[in-house]
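Entry for the shared binder. Reason: the reviewer on the internal report wants the predicted structure included alongside the sequence.
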Amino acid sequence: MTNTLCLECVHISIMTGKLLGLRAISTNTLTNLFCQKMQRSKVPTICQKCYSWAMLNGFRKNNQPALQRNSDLLGSRALQPGEVPNIVDRYFRFQAHGELINQRHLKNLVLICERNPHCTFSLWTKRKDIVRKVFAKAEKPANLVLIYSNPKVSTIMAKPPKGFHKTFNNVLEHEDTERQNCTGQKCLDCLLCYKFDTTDTIVEKVKKY
């Protein structure tokens, strides 16, 4: 179910494309201060080729209000027990759009993991600072796969940063072709990012949007 009317509910998105069959809880990329900073950076990063930034400014513009409600809710206060969604899925994605806003945001995602121990959640983030601060004081859920989204293009991180399980890397189409293992197949048919016992280094070619 997708929450579209409740202003105090966590909005769950039904994904399309290679994410078909998965659902996700995301936030608004366009209002995230970290994302804005990365977009303006003079140092080239994958953020300057961000699919979410392009989509939410374009044909997915109508998704902004729902994602902004998630940003406002998840980043502002602790979810109350009755607000933590029940997830029926086996695999679930955090942040198909957007980035961690602050420690409160991550703590709320942890609450969702704890409420749904049958489900494996995967979170992509560049915010090592937030991850380290939160899990320095709290136990990491056993059903949360933490994936470090490497901001550098054409530089593969083989070893995940401390506290992370995997790295997600982007290379140009002609680079490291033998190491590219995220090649456009449906995520549910692959699950490299959604299982602990697969590779810890994901490599995808940079897409054009």
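Summary line for the report: The chain has a mean pLDDT of 94.
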